[in-house]
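Exercise 7.
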Amino acid sequence: MAAAVSVPTLTWGAVERVRRSGVLDLLLAVGVLLSLGRFLATALGYGIPAWFSEELPPLIGLLAHNDPITAIDVRQYGVVTFLVYDPAVRLLGPDLHPLAAYGLVVSLVASLAAFILIARHLFAGHRRAALVLALLWLNFVPLLYVVAQRMVDAWQLLFLSAAFVLFSNSSASPRWRRLAGVPLALAAMTKILPALLLVYLLIRDWRAGVLGLAVVGALLGVGQALYGTLMGFGYPAWLLSSGGGTVAAWSTHYENNSLRGLIYKAAAGFRLEPDTKTYVLAAEWQPFLNALCYALAFALVGYLLLAAWRSRSAAAPRRRAIELGLAFVTMLLVSPHTAHDYTVVMLPVIALWIALWRCGAPRAWARPLVVASALSAFLIGVFLPMSVMARLIPIDALLAATHNAANVYFTGDPIGRGIGAYDFLGFPGVGLLLAWGVMAVLEHQSRRAVPESAGVPLADTVRPEIAVLGST
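Solution. The predicted structure, written as tokens, is:
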């Protein structure tokens, strides 16, 4: 007698769920296409970036006019910036217009490559979650600005995304983790701030950290050979010698949203002198505020390094991902100057939040943690046009309350009442503080969670109650 064959029953409820799922996927796909259009339109709408006149003249002078590099700007980026633009200057010449087009291509490729890396790492096989991430990625206002201005922060996003993927890879082999030092070295030699991540790596996985330092040394050697001492082995010494004045200048910069920037803004009551960008701040307060900023920065870095020390033998990818996310946020908070565009490196952290929330890791997310992470992402990423944000956030009322409404810098350029005022009022900084709190909670939970093996995927299961971001 033939064995009975079980035929699945297709209920009306199942058909309806499939139909709704398809509609949701279609709506998400349309949203991604529209967001891509906004992303490209914003990127193509700008001309020559202002930072070109600060950072590129030494390179152009050397390659186009054979002038040796004897002086560099106080904010000079590292040797990787020269290495990226070197072939363009040699092929296209000193004209900034074709160099701006070249920079746009590099920024677009870097930002989209970073998305692919993170989406494949965290959401492979989960189409809907990847579409949601694409919506957030393409509408992340700091990234729109960075790409439009051809800023090196787009490369930083790629380098840090690559390090995140390598360091939290679920492969049981430690070789992937050790390679994480390579993109971090590239990031540190683009802008010096990610050097903090190399310090973290030296404690967490010393072989990866040593490899990163070796790559830094190699890059400085290349800079020495191609561009001279200031962009070679003399670059670190030059940074140290100019650091004090730079920190003092950035402490009271209106767009600074690091912990230091927020403290100085709060001490001034978020008030500027009439028709200036100078804080209303008594000179005798400066030493105390400076000491407070350093003390809090050391405390945050100390917490990060303590977490790294505790986990030296932990190979679980979730634990490594959470720690590195905490390191990203800490880096932005302790920086002497964190402009809004620097926060593009929060995108891998936001993606990590989504992935961990979906699988209830390190444990099921409590409502306050969900709200704090969502609010943090919103305050940092903005996502909406500023014309819409101005209706949600009473910027005009806040400027009036802080006696800045009549300041010419807010009634026109360079600050204005849009994103400049938003940055001045510290909303991205509040988002970063919330992000640190979220990561601290996750770090604490992951430390107390049941240890995982190195081969367990970072986000392997989806809780049924949040299947709206499921595996379809």
